[in-house]
Amino acid sequence: MSDSREKKKIVFSTGAGVSAESGLSTFRDAGGLWEQYPVMQVASAEGFAADPALVHKFYNARRRDLVSKEPNEAHRLIADLQRDFDVRVITQNVDDLHERAGSREVLHLHGELMKLRDVADPGYIETLSAPDLESSPDTLSRDGKGRHMRPHIVFFGEAVPNIEPAMELVEQADVFVVIGTSLNVYPAAGLLAYVRSGVPIYYIDPSPADVKGLRDVTVIRKKATEGMAELAAILRNNQ
Predict the structure, then answer these.
(1) At 121, is the secondary structure helix, strand, or coil?
(2) Interatomic CA distance for residues 135 and 57, integer angstroms
(3) Residue 197 DSSP symbol
(4) Are 75 and 101 within 8 A, CB to CB?
(5) Which residues, including other chains, have CB under 8 Å from residue 197's CB and lie 6 or more apart?
(6) Pick from 226, 201, 204: which is nearest to 214 by CA?
(7) Residues 111, 113, 115, 119: is their CA dihedral positive or negative?
């Protein structure tokens, strides 16, 4: 298949479970970050307004953790499928491990940890790179315009600007794959409703949510790396 338009479109929806095997702490699982930090203080619009210094400090620590981690085999297998399929990734994760593994089309629903944006203008975004990973309420934009910057994260209480592009991608999918998510986080969990009738759905998770009421769902009850190895073989056998 020489033309990408002829390739099957596989749309992945990934959550914390796809990055957990890289050593990144999840937020919601037992022992996760929400048990260690007051969630509404460090990840909500109200928390940022009340104590922006604390929020910057929290995400500075997340960045330092992220740059010490590497993509795992699940990230690499997803990227490798680009050789044979039109692969799109919709992720709830704010890390950049999909991109570092080689995925070219990644849509972040909840923002990106390695970026800052203008407090007043969400459209102005800057990318951070090591070793310059720190930000604070005094951080100004690099364009010389004196823009005050904030983490490029969708806080609780804020709209999810990429949800409509995500819905459009799901509607185009020939195969839809969910990896490492509880299916309890909305609006991301609602993406399943946009899968066209007859399109196969694969759900990879060691402790999957109940999907008995959903049609055409194949559950692969494994961690992301093992589940992706199984799925990659299935997809290539079904080409």
Answers:
(1) coil
(2) 8
(3) T
(4) yes
(5) 215
(6) 201
(7) positive
CB contact at 8 A, 101 and 78: yes
Q: How do 125-127 and 111-118 pair as beta strands?
A: antiparallel
Quickly tell me which residue has 């919601």 as its tokens: 28
Q: Which of 56, 98, 110, 152 is catalytic?
A: 110
Summarize pLDDT for 144-201 with one digit per residue, the tens: 999 999 999 999 999 999 999 999 999 999 999 999 988 876 777 789 999 999 999 9
pTM above 0.85, yes or no: yes
pLDDT band at 2 (very low <50, low <70, confident <90, very high): very low
Q: Rounded CA gap, 10 and 1, in Å?
A: 15
Distance CA 170, CA 178 (A): 11
Side chain identity at residue 174, one-letter code = D
User: How many helices, marked H, and strands, marked E, lie in the chain?
Assistant: 9, 9
CA-nearest of 233, 226, 223, 225 to 101 is: 225
With H, G, I as helix, E, B as strand and everything else as coil, classify residue 203: strand
148 classed as catalytic: no
User: What is the helix (H) or strand (E) element at residue 111, kind and residue range?
Assistant: strand 111-118
Helices 73-80 & 224-237 angle (0-180, nearest 10):
20
In our burial notation (b when 16+ CB lie closer than 10 A, e otherwise), range 49-61 reads eeebeebbebbbe
- Can you read off the two tokens belonging to residue 227? 């589940």
